UniProtKB/TrEMBL annotation:
It holds the Pfam family FtsK_SpoIIIE. Keywords: ATP-binding, Cell cycle, Cell division, Membrane, Nucleotide-binding, Transmembrane, Transmembrane helix. This is Cell division protein FtsK. Residues 361-555 form the FtsK domain. It comes from Nocardiopsis kunsanensis. It comes from the Bacteria. PANTHER family: DNA TRANSLOCASE FTSK, SPORULATION PROTEIN RELATED. Residues 1-25, 710-743 are annotated as: Disordered. One of its GO terms (molecular function) is ATP binding. The keyword Membrane applies. The chain crosses the membrane at residues 183-201. GO terms for biological process: cell division. Signal peptide: none annotated. The keyword Cell division applies.
């Protein structure tokens, strides 16, 4: 059975590769061996001539591909074909934004080119005028030749030399008559044109006569061009416009990466937005990841700028399907695409915000509600542009409360300061302390919101207990969006005194806060185990990974196995492609995006707009409303015990916990371990009394939380003494609304 759409390879055209080469469903591919056999001299025997020896008992395997059940049939083949039919309408007719951009470009192009030509028209005219005498001379020459019938001169000469008198006389008479008529016509024409011209010149005002003279000069100028004259209107080409993508180029560049074998073109190479798209199946044994990893090599082999070559995998097809998109113009050399909200507009964080652009130039939206965002990348990879876009989007929603902790101290996020409930910029201890304080307060706010939502009737929370726009609108509930940005959060997470607690709280917030309208944005330039708590990198829901240097950093930002699955931010060049990264909305929804780039001056203007919006809406709070924010400790003994509790331990002796609390927070707990006699001078009896007192203090302090201490046996670790069970602690945390680790 032959494939209905099979095309033959064109022998004359080196750029043409047979398409499609994959067999239709149910068709057995023609193997090399089969073809060789056909070509060879091997004697072929018709199946009907073959005698089966002991067919009944024969165990010879039947060729399963010949069984009727395995054949797809016409319907299946054509269904499969139909699925692959390219879109009916070109992309610019389907995509409003592309259509608008194209229309805008056409208008801009002709306006710009028209203006360019118009401003140079005096130069063109001068050049034409300089050539006009030659043109006029040529025109008179051509007219003279016509008038005096010079084209027949050669013929008359030949006849005269051959002494064919009668013929010569006939030609002579004809020549005389022609010349007379033509001179007469010329004289009449010259006279009438001169008269009309003179009268028109005399009658018309000078400004009206000028175009006529100019047009005549231009005509004669155009006629005066020599074969090697330079064109009057100069032309130029753009080095940034890339040559068209051909299948031969795709094949040879993949071969340059070491991919040997037959490459199948699944679809013809076609225009896709401002570029070309080739879809190929790599030869068996090769995976798309190889091409993704060697993107720079591929661009080199294609002799194209890196920023124009975008290989992608097609997870819906198979791991060997490569989608190669090549930009027509080098985006690095084209004008910056402006953030759609740059000049006007506001946001609603329950809806999408414009985050950036994909390589095709389409706006990529992001919904920040019910999510949190981790942005990571090496220094200079463009994290600030990612966090700036989200911070400004938050600022432009007048209902959104903004808490911004820019822990680099660069002042990059200063443009949003005027609208922030809390704003801190700096990387000193005091800034880290504020960051930790903010996390504690966010956790307290989370508990408050959780309680309110838990108490709402079911019809108020139709799709589960979380914040909804109608709840956010009710001011008295205080469930409006709260956007908390921790820029360069590694400064806080690595802090000797505050890091551990900050990491613990951030981990809990990342897991719990998003349903309650608290959106956490964390950026880090050091995505490693110490700077980025595992609990954060494991649980964050949206990730934007800019250029990183290795697979560990890649997977810390993007999630486990992403590198293995071909989602590799190692492919980006942080210098040439700053701001470009993988945006992962989930492990199955990943795409390459360049965050919209907003300059500081522009961000300041947007910040002013946001301030105006909030002033009008009456939603300025905190520092933005002139209040001073005091640092208060909202954590409890339960939080402190959770922080000092050694991981993996189900039970702990009270004495050990009290000692740990005293060293963790000496201001609060040092007096729990104080004794009249120094420890080293205590008798065993005194020591026992002292430890009993410490254990009793802890028991008394835990009683209001409903946690009871009891006898705990720890083999090899102090035997049987008063202690606390981890499970009791977690149960108490849950009761008090505080998110416990094990929940
Ligand atoms: N989205 C973008 N589009 C175009 N250029 C960008 C983009 N983002 C950043 N850049 C360019 O890259 C440079 C460095 O970016 P940026 O300072 O944001 O990096 P960073 O990752 O925040 O650096 P650091 O880790 O040092 O804070 C910018 O000055 C800008 O020129």
């Amino acid at each position: 059975m032959s494939h209905p759409e099979r095309h033959e390879q064109h022998p004359d055209h080196e750029n043409v590769v047979s398409f499609p080469t994959r067999p239709a469903i149910g068709v057995v591919p023609e193997t090399e061996t089969a073809r060789e056999l056909e070509r060879s001299d091997v004697e072929r025997v018709a199946p009907e001539d073959v005698e089966l020896v002991d067919a009944e008992n024969s165990v010879a395997s039947r060729p399963v591909d010949d069984l009727p059940a395995t054949r797809g049939g016409w319907i299946d083949d054509h269904k499969a074909l139909l699925e692959q039919v390219p879109a009916l309408l070109p992309s610019y007719l389907r995509d409003k934004q592309e259509m608008a951009e194209n229309a805008k470009f056409i208008v801009e192009y002709y306006a710009r080119m028209g203006a360019y030509r118009a401003t140079r028209s005096p130069i063109y005219l001068l050049k034409l005028t300089a050539r006009s005498p030659r043109g006029m001379g040529r025109a008179i020459g051509v007219w003279g030749q016509w008038c005096f019938d010079t084209e027949a001169n050669e013929l008359r000469k030949t006849v005269a030399n051959s002494s064919r008198t009668s013929e010569y006389m006939m030609l002579s008479r004809q020549h005389g008559a022609r010349v007379r008529t033509r001179i007469l016509v010329s004289l009449i024409l010259a006279l009438s044109v001169t008269t009309v011209g003179a009268v028109a010149l005399a009658a018309a005002p000078a400004w009206a006569a000028m175009p006529g003279i100019v047009a005549m000069l231009a005509l004669f100028g155009a006629a005066g061009a020599k074969a090697d004259s330079r064109p009057i209107v100069e032309r130029w080409t753009s080095p940034h416009i890339q040559r068209e993508l051909t299948s031969a180029e795709v094949v040879s560049s993949l071969e340059a990466l070491g991919i040997k074998g037959h490459i199948d073109f699944v679809n013809p190479i076609q225009t896709d937005g401002p570029g070309w798209r080739a879809e190929v199946d790599l030869p068996p044994g090769y995976l798309t990841e190889k091409v993704l990893e060697e993107r720079a090599k591929l661009a080199g082999a294609m002799r194209r700028p890196l920023t124009t070559v975008w290989p992608e995998s097609d997870p819906e097809a198979h791991p060997g399907r490569l989608v190669l998109w090549v930009a027509k113009k080098d985006p690095a050399k084209t004008k910056r695409r402006l953030w759609p909200l740059m000049k006007s507009g506001q946001t609603d964080l329950f809806e999408d915000i414009p985050f950036g652009f994909n390589p095709r130039g389409q706006v990529i939206p992001l919904n920040l509600m019910y999510t949190n965002l981790l942005i990571g990348g090496v220094p200079g990879s463009g994290k600030t542009s990612g966090v700036m876009v989200t911070a400004l989007a938050g600022a432009l929603d007048p209902t959104c409360e903004m808490w911004v902790y820019e822990l680099k101290g660069s002042g990059d996020l200063d443009p949003v300061q005027p609208v922030c409930h809390r704003y801190v910029s700096g990387d000193d201890d005091e800034h880290c302390a504020s960051g930790l304080d903010a996390l504690r307060k966010l956790e307290k706010e989370l508990k408050r919101r959780k309680k309110i939502i838990a108490g709402l009737p079911a019809d108020q929370v139709p799709k589960g207990r979380k914040v909804y726009p109608h709840l956010a609108r009710e001011k008295k509930l205080g469930l409006h969006p709260l956007l908390a940005v921790f820029d360069e959060a590694h400064t806080l997470f690595e802090h000797e005194d505050y890091g551990k607690e900050a990491a613990d709280i951030a981990g809990r917030l990342v897991r719990k806060a998003r349903a309650y309208g608290i959106i956490l944005i964390i950026t880090t330039q050091r995505p490693d185990a110490k700077s980025l708590p595992k609990v954060v990198s494991d649980n964050v829901s949206t990730r934007f990974c800019l250029a990183v240097t290795g697979h560990t950093a890649n997977d810390l930002v993007l999630g486990t196995s992403m590198y293995k699955n071909g989602v590799r931010a190692t492919m980006f060049d942080p210098k040439k492609e700053a701001g470009t990264g993988w945006l992962a909305k989930s492990s199955h929804d990943t795409q390459i995006v360049r965050a919209a780039f907003i300059e500081q001056a522009e961000a300041i203007e947007i910040g002013k707009r946001a301030l105006a919006l909030r002033t009008a809406a009456g939603t300025l709070t905190g520092e933005a409303a002139g209040e001073s924010i005091t640092t208060e400790d909202t954590t409890t003994l339960l939080d402190h015990l959770t922080t000092v509790w050694p991981s993996g331990e189900d039970t702990m002796h009270s004495v050990r916990l009290v000692e740990a609390l005293a060293s963790f927070r000496p201001d609060t707990y040092a007096h729990w371990v104080e004794a009249d006699t120094p420890l080293e001078e205590m008798s065993p009896e005194q020591m026992r009394t002292h430890e009993t007192r410490m254990a009793t203090t802890l028991s008394n302090a835990l009683a209001p939380f409903g946690v009871h201490t009891g006898q705990v046996t720890k083999r090899g670790g102090g035997g049987s003494r008063k202690g606390v069970k981890r499970a009791d602690l977690e149960a108490a945390m849950n009761r008090s609304g505080a998110p416990a680790e094990a929940e």
